[in-house]
Write a structure and sequence with these properties.
It is a single chain. By secondary structure, this protein is mostly helical. The protein has one domain. Helices cover about 60% and strands about 0% of the residues.
Length: about 130
């Protein structure tokens, strides 16, 4: 996906313009329990574009061929999507664990979201997942 930065009529111009910033809180994205990815695919596409754009602007990479640039953006999109799916799977496992102890959680003074966070951190550490 190549977003023409110089084309103000392009729907992604605002997000690709240097003065813009993507303000999206991934913690607010899915409704808990839906299993939905944290970021919509279009936003992942925009992030991949911005990563490549920044790499080119800073001289970290030289990319003159638009096809190569598109392939790089696609590879970044795939990597981000896979990482989010991995975290979603971890979240689902934490929900299943907590569901087994729902009665005890209801009777205790412990907050569900705090238990969720602690169990998720522990499982991630055990599995070598960086959150």
């Amino acid at each position: 996906m190549s977003v023409p930065v110089e084309n103000p009529s392009h729907p992604l111009f605002r997000l690709s313009h240097p003065a813009s910033r993507i303000a999206y809180n991934i913690r607010d994205s899915p409704i808990e329990g839906t299993g939905a990815m944290r970021l919509p695919p279009k936003l992942i596409e925009i992030i991949a574009f911005r990563v490549v754009q920044r790499l080119v602007e800073t001289g970290a990479i030289v990319c003159r061929d638009p096809n190569v640039r598109d392939q790089l953006e696609a590879a970044i999109e795939r990597a981000l999507t896979e990482e989010f799916k991995l975290e979603d799977q971890l979240d689902e496992e934490v929900r299943r664990i907590l569901a087994q102890y729902a009665d005890q959680i209801d009777r205790s003074q412990v907050e569900y979201h705090e238990l969720f966070r602690k169990i998720k951190q522990r499982l991630a550490k055990e599995r070598g997942i960086v959150l």
